[in-house]
Every structure is written in C-alpha cells, then in structure tokens.
Design goal:
One of its GO terms (biological process) is transmembrane transport. By secondary structure, the protein is α/β, with parallel strands linked by helices. The protein has helices spanning 2-23, 66-80, 97-103, 116-122, 129-134, 144-153, 177-182, 195-205, 221-226, 246-259, 275-280, 295-303, 342-352, 355-363, 373-376, 409-424, 430-451, and strands at 53-59, 84-88, 108-111, 164-169, 171-176, 207-209, 212-214, 286-290, 310-314, 324-335, 367-368, 398-401. α10 (246-259) crosses α17. The longest helix is centred in the N-terminal third of the chain and has 22 residues, at 2-23.
Length: 455
C-alpha cells in the first residue's frame, strides 16, 4: 500500500511538472516583443533555429512580389536563424486559394481582406490564442485599427484570433511629374487636398497630345472611393445590399464626375485605368491607391531598368473629411491549422513583428503594424525606388479602420465593377446604377445563402 501511495505521488508530481511546462512555465518574450527567448524549451515548445527547419509560405491575396518576400521575410529570418528557411509556394496561374490549400500545407499564410473570409471557410486558419499565450506575445504593441479589424472578423463565433497584422496598407496619391510638367499643371501638394481640387487638375491632364492619350486620374473606382468613407457593401445583419444611402450616393456621384471628364472614356469605350497604365504605360497622371499595390512592383520595374519621374502626395478626400484618409487595409500572417510546425511558424511571425522585423518592413516601403512612431521616420530609407520621394506624405491624414468584410462581400464585389461600367459607358444615372446594383446584389445574396450558407 505504501509503494502504491508513493507511486501515485510520483505520477502526480510528474503530471504537475508537465502541466507547468505546457502552460508556459517561465518562458518570456524578448525585450522587443518578438518570439520567446532562451527559456523556449522549458516553456513547452521547441526553440526556433535549434534544428534545421523549412517552413512554407503562401500568399492568398494582395500584392507581394518576390523582391518583398525575400527582403521582408525570407532573408531576415535566415540571417537571424541560419537553420531556418522560409520557402514560398508559387502555384500555377489561375489556381484558386482553395485548390492550393487542399493540395499543399503551407505553414504560414499571408492574407488580406481580399481573402480572409474565403480562407476562414477552408478551415486553414489556426486559432492563435493558445500560441499567443504560450509564447507570451505582446498584443498591446499592435495598432488597434489593425488588430480590432482582425478580431471583428470572428466576433461572436468563438472569437478566435485567426491572424496577426503584418503591415498597414495605407493609401496615397501617386503622380507622374513628367505629365504634370508636359501640360504645365502644378503638382499635388503635401497638404491633403479635396476631391474638387484634384478633379480640377485631372481635367487639365486628361487630353490627347500627338496621338497619345493621357488620363488625369485613376481612383480604383467605386470600391476605392468608398474606402474614403469606410463604407460596407452589405448590411451586417441582413446581408442585403447597403448601397442605397447618402454616403454611397456621394461616392457614385464622385465616380460619375470622374468618368465625365472630357476624354476620360476612350473612343473604344475603355474606362478603367490602373497600375499598368500608371507605371508601365506612363499615361496616367495621378493614381490614388494602396502603398503595397505600387511600391514593390515599381521596385521590381526599377531593377529591370525602367524608371520615370514620379512622387507621392496625401490621398485626397471630401472637404468635410479632410484629416482622414482611406481605410488601412490589413495584411496579416497566420499559422495553418494543419501545419506540423505551428510553434515554429508562430515564432517566425513573432520575429517579423519584433521591433527589428518591423524596422526592416518600414525601411523597405511597408507601414509597420506595431505602435512605434519612430519607425515612420525611417519609412522607405532602404528601398531604392523611394529614394528622393516625398514618403512622409504617406502619413498625412488619419487612416480609417477597414470596414467589416461580410462573408458574402468578396463574392458580390463584381457588382460594384458593373455599376462603375454603368456610370462610365452604359449611360445610367446615379440612382439607376444604385438601384440596378442593389437588385443584382440581393439576388446574389439569396444564391450565396444556399451555396455558402448563412454567415
């Protein structure tokens, strides 16, 4: 009996020690908020870099060229942890995220609002709360407008944390100085301007010269303009279209004014102008869009020997909204729920969110996800394409928190593009375009309730 009692106590003691180890023990975070430090193994996880390890990485949405992947993620991790390699999964063109995630098991998933809801439906996101606790990750360092958006996605559904913000993708106005000089138009100012002021310049810059057409302004149309007021596409409770409001009508009216600039719509009915027309064709004078949409691709273009005279100004807004800029899109990092290296993958994410990791991010043209105003002063210092540019204009105006992306929103986004076409080339007035889009969206929603299910 005495032997049994002693055995029981030994088992109990062993269990308690194991439980303490599993709960994190005395494992701490590094001074700059990165991954847990030397106490790693006693904290119940394998210390990153102790053994050779390859982790795979997959980008589900957003512009993230190889030059940025290597500079911001693969190279810094390899430099600090020589035994760790981050390898990018690059599927064939037109392969869907769902197809990739059913074929591969990337350890780290890079996402944005353009994919979060779809990836949630695949079940690929690991709930990071246990890993946050285990690794003593300091969530208070992350900018609230970014982290609050992430938490809002799953609010009321277990409130899991599916991702850690990687950077704030803010909006600016890019402009081609050569086109402004060609037509003698003053450059946009470093003071935030109104849409009326920008439209006045765009009117002077939208013209044909020696057979070449120049477009004064590109704004990503209805979807881009709506981000200046933080507008949802769908009602969160009913799932129905949310376009028939004074705020959305204001957006439709502004887009209509842009399309009505003399010469904006081409004789062949071309009406939509984007990145290619700005940085490759160099026929668009101004483009209002995300930082990440342009900086990386223009650096790749520079490395190919293509450069031109451009700069950055603050994103414009309505006169009663000055001081605010467009929504800051969240680019985020997640751990795959099927990964065999969840602990290590999270430690990589924590390292990228450390002060050192975010400094690399800032110096190479991404706005950091952490609260550290000093990093803004270093923005763009290490990326050649931003040398000599007015990069501090990226921080003029307070970015809005991204609106709640309804689970159906990504599927009905095409209706906003159709509505823009209706305004540009199909002769619809604003009220008719809103009514047509609303009817189409509501029909889509009824179908989505069947195919996707109720959110």
């Amino acid at each position: 009996m005495k032997k049994l009692t002693m055995a029981f106590h030994l088992i109990l003691l062993t269990s308690l020690l194991a439980a303490c180890s599993k709960d994190g023990g005395d494992g701490g975070k590094t001074a700059d908020g990165g991954a847990a430090g030397k106490a790693g193994e006693s904290a119940g996880y394998k210390k990153l870099g102790d053994e050779p390890l390859k982790l795979t990485f997959f980008n589900t949405s957003g512009t993230f060229p190889d030059v940025e992947f290597n500079t911001l993620i693969a190279a810094p991790i390899k430099a600090k942890y020589p035994n760790v390699t981050i390898e990018r999964i690059t599927p064939a063109a037109q392969t869907t995220n769902e197809e990739v995630l059913s074929t591969y098991t990337p350890d780290i998933i890079y996402s944005s609002s353009s994919s979060h809801q779809r990836i949630i439906r695949t079940g690929a996101y690991e709930d990071l709360r246990p890993l946050i606790k285990l690794h003593k990750f300091d969530e208070s360092r992350i900018k609230p407008i970014l982290y609050d958006y992430i938490k809002e996605i799953t609010k009321g559904k277990g409130d899991a944390v599916i991702a850690i913000p990687f950077n704030a993708n803010q909006h600016v106005l890019y402009y081609n100085k050569d086109i402004f000089d060609k037509f003698g138009v003053p450059y946009p100012t470093s003071k935030q301007q109104t849409w009326d002021e920008i439209l006045d310049a765009a009117r002077k810059l939208t013209r044909t010269d020696n057979g070449s057409r120049y477009i004064g302004l590109s704004v990503d149309n209805l979807t881009g303009l709506a981000k200046g007021l933080g507008l949802p596409y769908l009602d969160r409770e009913t799932g129905k279209a949310a376009l028939d409001t004074p705020a959305w009508r204001r957006i439709f009216e502004l887009n209509k004014k842009i399309f009505e600039l003399p010469g904006y719509v081409a004789p062949d009915k071309k009406w939509n102008y984007g990145r290619e027309e700005f940085y490759k064709d160099q026929k668009v004078a101004m483009r209002v869009t995300w930082l990440a949409n342009m900086v990386g691709p223009m650096e790749e273009l520079r490395q190919q020997g293509v450069e031109f005279n451009w700069d950055i100004a603050p994103a414009p807004n309505f006169s009663d909204q000055l001081g605010k800029t467009r929504e800051a899109q969240i680019h985020s990092l997640s751990v795959n729920s099927k990964s065999k290296h969840k602990d290590e993958a999270f430690q990589v994410i924590a390292e990228i969110l450390s002060n050192d990791g975010q400094r690399i991010l800032a110096r190479n043209g991404r706005v950091p996800a952490i609260i550290n105003p000093e990093l803004n002063k270093e923005y763009g210092l290490d990326i050649p394409v931003l040398k000599g540019k007015s990069v501090q204009n990226a921080f003029v105006g307070e970015p809005l928190q991204e609106h709640y992306i309804h689970p159906y929103e990504l599927e009905i986004g095409k209706r906003l593009e159709e509505a823009a076409a209706d305004l540009a080339i199909n002769g619809l007035d604003v009220n008719s375009a809103i009514r047509k889009a609303t009817e189409a969206i509501n029909k889509d929603v009824e179908t989505l309730k069947t195919t996707i299910g109720n959110p």
